[in-house]
Design brief:
alpha+beta; single chain; 8 strands; DNA-binding; TACO1_YebC_N; 41% helix; 4-stranded antiparallel sheet; cytoplasm; Arc Repressor Mutant, subunit A; 3 domains; DNA binding; Alpha-Beta Plaits; 239 residues; Probable transcriptional regulatory protein JK635_12790
Length: 239
C-alpha cells in the first residue's frame, strides 16, 4: 500500500509554504469542526482530529485560536461539505473534497478546472469505489517491528505498516485512527509526521512521461481553488 507518503506531503508543504493557503484551509476546517460540537477538542473528536492534522503541518497557534474563537463567537457562517469525482489525462482518477459557502461557485470552478486541463467531471461514485478511506499515521524513532509489536500489545488492528525514509507509516481503518494514536501516546510517542484520513487508491497507474506535466497542472489548479480542501488521485508520480 506504499504511497511514498513523505514525498507527497513534502511536495504539498513546500508549495503551500509559499502562499500560506494551507493555513486558510485549516482555519476553515477547524471552524467547521468546532461549530459541529463544542469548541473544545477534549469534548469534540472531530475538532481534535483536525487539530492533530494541523499540528503535523505546523499551522500557527494564532490561526487555530482565531478559528475556534470565531466558532465560540456564534458566527452564523456555514459551509457545505462536497465531494467531486472526475478523470484526468489517460483516464486517471481524481477525488476533490471541498468546504464551501457557495455550492454553485465551487461546482463551476471545479468543473472548469477539469475541463480546461484535460479532464472531465464524473458522476458521484464513478471514481470513489476505486479508493479506500484510510487512516494514515506516521512516526519517527521506531522500526516496523517495534511499531507492529506496540500495536499488537495495544490490540489495535491495522492494514499495513511500511518504513519510508526515516519514519514508519501505519495504514489503518478510519475508525482505528484514535486507537492507533493512543497506542503510540501510551508508548511515549506524542509527535506524528503525518496524521490524516486519506483516500488511498486500490491501484496506482503510471502515466506516459509526456502526459505527466499536464496531469500535475490539473492537480495544481484544483488544489489552488479556495474552496478545495483535499485532492486525491491514483497516479504514481514517483519521486
Amino acid at each position: 500500500m506504499g504511497r511514498k507518503w513523505n514525498n507527497i506531503k513534502d511536495k504539498k508543504a513546500a508549495k503551500d509554504a509559499n502562499t500560506s493557503r494551507i493555513y486558510a484551509k485549516f482555519g476553515r476546517e477547524i471552524y467547521v469542526a468546532a461549530r459541529r460540537g463544542v469548541p473544545d477538542p477534549d469534548a469534540n473528536q472531530g475538532l481534535k482530529f483536525v487539530l492533530e492534522r494541523a499540528k503535523t503541518y505546523n499551522v500557527p497557534r494564532h490561526i487555530i485560536d482565531r478559528a475556534i474563537d470565531k466558532a465560540k463567537g456564534g458566527s452564523d457562517e456555514s459551509y457545505d461539505e462536497l465531494r467531486y469525482e472526475g478523470f484526468g489525462p489517460n483516464g486517471s482518477m481524481i477525488i476533490v473534497d471541498a468546504l464551501t459557502n457557495n455550492v454553485n461557485r465551487t461546482a463551476s470552478e471545479v468543473r472548469a478546472a477539469f475541463g480546461k486541463n484535460g479532464g472531465n467531471m464524473g458522476v458521484s461514485g464513478s471514481v470513489s469505489y476505486m479508493f479506500d478511506e484510510t487512516a494514515v499515521i506516521g512516526v519517527e524513532g521506531k522500526n516496523e517491528e517495534e511499531v507492529l509489536e506496540l500495536l499488537m500489545e495495544a490490540d489495535v488492528d491495522v492494514r499495513d505498516i511500511i518504513a519510508e525514509d526515516d519514519q514508519v507509516i501505519v495504514y489503518a481503518e478510519p475508525d482505528q485512527f484514535h486507537a492507533v494514536q493512543e497506542a503510540f501516546k501510551n508508548a511515549g510517542i506524542t509527535e506524528f509526521t503525518v496524521a490524516e484520513l486519506s483516500m488511498i487508491p486500490q491501484n496506482e497507474v503510471t502515466l506516459p512521461e509526456d502526459v505527466v506535466p499536464k496531469f500535475e497542472k490539473l492537480i495544481d489548479v484544483l488544489e489552488d481553488l479556495e474552496d478545495v480542501q483535499h485532492v486525491y488521485h491514483n497516479v504514481d508520480l514517483g519521486e
